[in-house]
């Protein structure tokens, strides 16, 4: 495939996050000029403050469009529509949207991106492996016990490195225009099975417990999590983990011509670099 946008400035939103950071590193490695943006990045970009958008978009031709906190929260479609309009006006020609599997609210945002008049690619991802190493969940894994309101529902967890590889291909190569890639790992695992594999490969027992939705909400409230976030997390775990997303998809192979990374390989590598060592 040809590299058609190699010398054009690319804006990476959520640029300090799990996928954005990886996308930015890969683009820089390919010699693509990158502008990393978030509330704390050198280029300040805040989804809740449109006055920060024009400077971030100035001179940009392609955007890795990752929303925060999640495309399923109220207000996301409005923000995505306003951003797409601003992006087109600024001369952006290519948008690569990070979306989530099984979220009808996210699909509303996907439709907005499809209709905004630029080239587009959608990467619709499963639950990231890196939630177990780079988010609040990492602390629970490290402490030896994770508890969520999810029972024996398997999830085909996916590697954020695979997501970044697909996003970068879509941002820099031809052939991904107008494509929707469902990105998952090769196997679906329950949270209990995932903790079992971490236990086996680290040699330290990590237990898993299933909470009722009320127990989960009470635990978050007790830990001082803001009400809005509690409501979103409760929705996420009690609505999305009903089996709708359990089937692995072939997006990594379709986009890159290779298989996605397996959870065991991720765990082995994370354990070797001490990701769960206190
Ligand atoms: N995690 C998953 O398993 C998963 C799965 C599928 C899809 N997704 C999608 O991935 C996106 C977020 O991923 P994540 O939850 O894993 O977090 P993340 O990308 O690891 O971290 C959030 C990023 O967004 C930035 N951010 C937070 N609030 C912002 C705001 N108001 N304006 C601009 N930037 C902001 C943060 O940087 P600053 O703090 O510096 O602003 C950080 O770079 C969401 O759109 C979600 O739907 C996640």
Automatic annotation (TrEMBL):
Highest rank taxon of the organism: Bacteria
Coiled coil segments of this chain: none
Domain NAD(P)-binding: 15-173
Pfam families: NAD_binding_10
Protein name: NAD(P)H-binding protein
Organism: Actinomadura gamaensis
